[in-house]
Amino acid sequence: MRIQPAFLFDLDGTLVDSVYQHVLAWKHALDAEGIDLSVWRIHRKIGMSGGLFTNQLLRETGLEISTERVERLRQAHASAYRQQATQIRPLPGARELLNWLSEAGIPWAIATSGRMETAAVNLASLGVDPDRVPVVTRDQVKYAKPDPDLFLAAAERLSAPIETSIVVGDSIWDMLAAVRCRALGVGVLSGGYGPEELRQAGAFRVYDDPADLLRRIDEVCGRR
What we know:
This is Haloacid dehalogenase superfamily, subfamily IA, variant 3 with third motif having DD or ED/haloacid dehalogenase superfamily, subfamily IA, variant 1 with third motif having Dx(3-4)D or Dx(3-4)E. One of its GO terms (molecular function) is phosphoglycolate phosphatase activity. The chain is an alpha/beta fold. The protein folds into two domains: 6-18 and 88-220, Rossmann fold; 19-86, DNA polymerase, domain 1. The protein has helices at residues 19-32, 39-43, 50-61, 67-82, 94-103, 116-126, 149-158, 172-180, 195-200, 210-215; strands at residues 6-9, 16-17, 89-90, 108-111, 135-136, 165-169, 184-188, 203-207. Strand 6 (165-169), helix 8 and strand 7 (184-188) form a beta-alpha-beta unit. Helix 1 (19-32) crosses helix 4 (67-82). The radius of gyration is 17 Å and the shape is globular. The chain starts with 5 loop residues before the first strand and ends in a 9-residue tail after the last helix.
């Protein structure tokens, strides 16, 4: 009997062209708190949980950040990101890939380190209804990436074994989480990480974007 894999997708930079909007939103939030951090350093942390983001921020700036300040940063980031909602677009081939999987009867879900307050913008751009499609956000798990909780929860929502699931993501944090839960990691370059970085973090295959993945879907067991 052939085992049908489930596809577990990251959201930002994987299905939606939103990584740099997140970077700018974080830059806006940090500037408002008088915290000077270069944009490229912010980009390198997109995809990990907000808690780890602030922990690494502490190490790089040497600042002591209170719980209240962390919450202000989170809210300021979410507000700045929502203001860019009209600029958020699906990545090339994202909608077509999801439609193809649905038509082929291949289960899929979305697992994002973002909270629903920002993920809702991305889901709307994709035309994905979280009441009809399994969507797991940071609000629903104890730990986010690079911990595997998001992908484990997504596989559970699909009633799919995590060991036969395929994690598709754009960051090293996605690939590390995939390795930790024994799923197969597939990387896309549409979030700004390089192919070697993704492979070193555990990616089995690397594609340009969702359109490229769809063209070569048979390489990762996507068959009707």
